[in-house]
Write a structure and sequence with these properties.
α1 runs antiparallel to α2 (31-42) and α1 runs parallel beside α4 (55-80). The chain has helices at 2-26, 31-42, 45-50, 55-80. It is an all-alpha fold.
Length: 93
């Protein structure tokens, strides 16, 4: 069970990294990213609860969950931000 726990944590970290790249390319959130981030943040939780996982595994799971939430927050902020490349309003000093 320990190998499965570590494998699920690794899959979660890779998923979060891939979603970050996709959000950066698209400039905002998408349905696929929302589903993937939700799954990445809870993917390893059942294995962590069943297995007596070490603190390192719990820490990596927490990092994955926090990173997923931050990526979604950035994606949502990018969605509402004005598009400067399209000639949006700029602040003059």
């Amino acid at each position: 069970m320990t190998a499965l726990t570590w494998a699920l944590i690794a899959v979660g970290l890779v998923t979060v990294a891939a979603c970050q790249v996709r959000v950066r390319q698209e400039g905002g959130p998408s349905r696929e990213v929302a589903i993937a981030l939700s799954l990445a943040s809870v993917l390893a939780l059942p294995a962590l609860l069943v297995d007596e996982a070490p603190a390192t595994a719990w820490g990596l799971w927490g990092t994955t969950t926090i990173a997923a939430a931050l990526i979604w927050a950035v994606a949502d902020s990018l969605r509402t931000a004005p598009n400067r490349a399209a000639g949006g309003p700029r602040r003059k000093s």
